[in-house]
Amino acid sequence: MEYVSTATGTTTREVVTTPLGRRRSDLLTKLPAQGALAWVRDGEGLVGWGEAARLEVTGPGALDRAERWFAQWCADTRVDDPVGLPGSGPVLFGSVAFDPERGTSVFVVPAVVLGRRDGQTWVTTAGDHGDDDHEVTEFPAQAADASIGRLTYADGALDAVTWCGVVSEAVRRIGAGDLGKVVLARDVLVTADHPLDPRRLLLRLAARFPSCWTFAVEGLIGATPELLLRRTGDQVGSRVLAGTAARSSDPAADTALGAGLAGSAKDHAEHRYAIDSLAASLRPFCTDLDVPSRPAVLTLPNVRHLATDVRGTLAPDAPGLLGLLAAVHPTAAVGGTPRAAALDLIREIEGMDRGRYAGPVGWVDARGDGEFGLALRCAQLTGGAGGAEARLFAGCGIVGDSDPMAELAETQAKLAAVQAALQD
Ligand SMILES: C=C(O[C@H]1C=CC=C(C(=O)O)[C@@H]1O)C(=O)O
Asked: Please, are residues 226 and 239 in contact by the beta-carbon 8 Å criterion?
């Protein structure tokens, strides 16, 4: 497909997608260490680097502004895209602040994108970049096995005991009838002996969590099991998670933990809030929305979750993907119910700036197709270029019968996803 903008009549930029046939090499090994952008699941997806365009945005209407900005960028660009698949042609990577009105959301159109879908691989180049930007470097996959030495952990905003006190306060507020559910998170700080190469972390996360979406945008790196919204044409989908159980290395105990989750009234209540919030905010934009009545159990190496896959058909006048994200985020998987009361309580008692943790992260293309997950099970690399520091995050849904110690243990099980990928 090729189209030339007539919006300005002066097309100066060009985006060219070139098919590369059926290749099997690992997309993540092609990334440079600096400015790595990634959205990969089970060997397919997109990786990008370099910046043809960039937008940092904060304040009311941040996502709608980003949507208009990318639409204009595409309208002013000559596109040559013979591949014509979701993710080919111009692509915008985004990492949205948990609170887009107060935090900064980052959007990047990469200079180079390598994509793979249904076994087909392509490369897209954007803007007036020299050949150097298009050169594909190779991070040796074995380098992911290299040690980064000792890791030292420190408390983030709150120590564990204080955080349990915050959970108790939330339980009290829920008991008092102020709200039904709130998600509370904590952070821990980690310092390594050697620089934290994002590619090492990405490769290790992708290998351990092939069913999760391994992502990187602006130093926020993780493998999330939760898909907030996928749009393909007029089809929209979401994988809603809430309700968690730990795993055990003892098979009988592990089976019992899984059965306990499947039968847990507390976890089903937590899950229901998340499903209802997504369905209520998405339904007005859909001609039909299929919400299964009972969740499935999703098993990951470190935890199990209650999971529901929601599917719908968008109405012809539905907003674009970024506009839809603005409508549905935050669901009660990361915020709470009622939404406004939960966000107020988070601001009042959580004691931490979430930044882009628990915000939407993913990509959208010029057709409006794209995928955004929730930035969970992630680390924000904080040490700058060649840095060896990171901030890790985990949160839990709190309902009326939550036990603070059990919630602390749940954050530890969730943090273990990134910790295991960092460690030797
Ligand atoms: C907020 C997080 O998880 C959410 C997603 C799945 C299960 C959750 C839970 O059971 O509490 C949380 O809602 C996190 O991992 O930081």
From this structure: yes
Domains of the chain listed by start with CATH number: 2-135+150-422 (3.60.120.10)
pLDDT mean values, one per 10 residues, the chain (424 residues): 38 89 89 95 97 97 97 97 98 98 97 97 82 62 79 96 98 98 98 91 96 98 98 98 97 97 97 98 98 98 97 98 98 98 98 98 98 98 79 98 98 96 86
* E strand or H helix that includes residue 119: none
Active-site hit among 226, 270, 350, 407: 226
Q: What is the DSSP letter of 367?
A: T
Fill in the DSSP letter of residue 202: H
Q: Write down the catalytic residue from 67, 181, 389, 407.
A: 181
244 CA closest ligand 1 atom index: 10
Active site residue 226: yes
Under a CB-based contact definition with an 8 Å cutoff, are residues 107 and 70 in contact?
yes
**Does ipTM exceed 0.90?**
yes
Helix axes 265-282, 321-328, angle to 10 degrees: 130
Does ligand 1 come within 6 angstroms of the Cβ of 185?
yes
Q: Separation of 335 CA from ligand 1 center, angstroms?
A: 10
